[in-house]
Amino acid sequence: MSLPLHAQTRAVPEAAVLEGLPLVRAVSAAEVAARISGGPRLVVLDDDPTGTQTVADVPVLTSWSVADLRWALRQDSSAFFVLTNTRSLSPEDAAARNREVVGALRAASQAEGTGYVLASRGDSTLRGHFPLETDVLAEELGAVDGVVLVPAYIEAGRLTVHSRHWMRTAEGLLPVGESEFARDATFGYRSSSLPEWVEEKTGGRVRAEAVLRITLDDLRGGGPEHTARLLSSLSGGRAAVVDAVCDDDLRVLALALAEAEENGARLLYRVGPSFVRARAGQAARAPLAPAEVRPLRGDAPHGLIVVGSHVALTTRQLDRLRERGGIAEYELDVALLLDEERRDAHIAEVATAAAGALDSADAVIRTSRVLVTGADADDSLAISRRVSAALVQAVRQINATRRPAFVVAKGGITSSDTATDGLEIRRAWARGTLLPGIVSLWEPVDGPAAGIPYIVFAGNVGGDDALADALDLLRSA
User: What is the Cβ-side half-sphere exposure of residue 207, based on CA atoms within 13 angstroms?
Assistant: First the structure.
């Protein structure tokens, strides 16, 4: 396929990118499920809480003690998530956390007599600690033959064609290297070609021409056996990048991985959300219906919405929620949160008011919509963590005073900190989504949040009405 020169700098029609591709090779989720039955468990180390939004009925851990990991390994599920939240950490802390998790997982696996394969779940727009995390995991696992990169997120329109990664926009498909995400202050990059991206992110340690390209010609034309031979050719930790436009492509890959690993290949995955569903043998499911949410919802009349994300989309979603009504809104003033003398009193005042409102309305607690930044990236991150800690403190106080019917957390760091510290969730089940392919509902199984559905809502997903639509579903339940 040849694209016009301007494809390098702006969106092009999706049909132009997909033109001339081989016909899809149909593979059912049931076929994958049968192939992996009795095999090693897929353990997903998730660098952000939003990775569960493509799966259903999968265990989630926010703690990685040996006991917690043994619990997850004992569940009747082909996969489970460990929320490491490393995207919000420094490189040193992210490396240390990955080592901790793998050390505990090794002990839990030995105790349960259950094997596992590891997926490092990163962002479908290529942000995150790569190659740091896969380097650390490969070292902890001993030697691995290959690192398989599959960043596709089908529902969100993040597709890989001819080893080039794209994101769907209103104007068409945009090379991710031309997107706003590529300008991320911490995880920025230039390349949209995945082999060139690998070379860029590894600082030239891995040359683009050394990366194995598994294309749609391989997946659709050659099929699982051909793709398994390609995967089995990996050695010395060589990187492979994989195309994907639909779930069938990923299920072909899942069959090939199972065959290659059964034949002795030691592989490590760095993936987007859609791969997890395919590799776990799950089919895409419709969003949860009110009748399915109803048994999970708490007895209280109203819920709590916690908003920390500052992206423009979140602000628009809040505006739409206000238009539909039925909420009481409270602001945590960032200026007061950074004032040590007034901080705790301000948090307590907001928490008390929000808890009192839960008898008559869904309560929204949000940070100031004006983003406060520091002198540099580290200072800005410290401010973000300080603000997130205040949200967590407010959630903890509200739940101690008046248990909400549900909790919605909007934003990446917000949803992680609210789960682990605000609600003290250690073990949960991801039961499904509230909207197609996005907005995951967790059912906590122990601790202060047991019986309160927890909804993980990333900051930059969905349309302007998505937050209001999710609330309508929860209310109708």
Answer: 2
